[in-house]
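Data deposition worksheet. Section B asks for the primary sequence of the deposited chain exactly as it was used as input, without tags or linkers unless they were present during the calculation. Section C holds the resulting structure in token form. Section D is free text for depositor observations; keep each observation to a single sentence. Incomplete worksheets are returned to the depositor.
Section A, Depositor: J.P.
Section B:
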Amino acid sequence: MTTLALEYKDFLLEIKSTIEQAQVRALSNVNKELVQLYWNVGKLISDKSERWKWVIENLSKDLRRTFPSIKGFHESNIRRMVKFYETYKDNEKLVALSLEINWTNNLFILERCNNDLQRQFYMLITKKEWWSSRVLDNMIDGQYYERFMIAHKDNNLDKTMLPELAKDTQLALKDSYLFDFLTLGKKYKEKDLHDWLLSRIQEFLLELWMWFAFIGSQYEVKIEWDAYFIDLLFFHIELNCYIVVELKVVDFKPEFIGKLNFYVNVVDDLIKKDHQNPTIGLLICKNKKEHIVRYALKDVNKPIAVSKYEENKNLWDMAKKLPTAEQIEEVLIRFEEGL
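Section C:
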């Protein structure tokens, strides 16, 4: 790919992102009014439905007859409005946050989360990242809340990036990635993992998270006539930077950092534009040990994160590993302050 073609590709991504964000902001105001309407309807019905068991069924018929163009007044959705009100009526924080996300996302959070702390987390992050319902559903299914709360992130981002950018990058990268769509068996090579992830690129991108744009695999860079190949190259639209991803099907080894650091330097020097933020390196390996990673990153001055991947979420027993409610509340306070 020529320099001009690559520059145009970056420019196109930037324009698309600008348009999409404007569309989302316009929809946000409409969604807020709709959620407020459903809250008010749920509140009005809540007291009556205890005494008038037939009220919801009758209301559904009468409201749909009166407002045929409004699709949200079928019986099951009215019952959700009542549940929505009754679940959040004593929690002012959740009431306020619920108005910042759309009704479909509210329903996912209301019905699939087990407690208010978990709901608060998903509301906050959905608000920040403009998650679609599909992404939110995928994140809840992949136990992102549990993984976030018990994660110990191994990276040097706070030492190698500006504070605000480091905060956003910490949120954008995960400590562990769930590849539960893998069907490679017990023994496979890096090329097998690489090829399989490419064959399921949509699922892979969903697990990587929002704003990752795929640039290429085995991306070739030439230095003094020697060719080198980057496993996977992405551009993160929100962070405005390239992300170099290296895959390893074995446990972390210190020498992996040297190769990744090399690729990050190359992308910074040969591909990154002046208006873009520094390139980030992301190593995804089978497993890792905190202290070994810490020593390997100690004197590295490029932003690099080390994550692991899991193949089966059913093997996880996350609930037993979660911090206490008080500790989770502290995390949520810091999380909200960083938005």
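Section D:
The longest strand covers residues 212-223.
Strands lie at 154-155, 176-178, 212-223, 226-236, 241-247, 280-285, 304-310.
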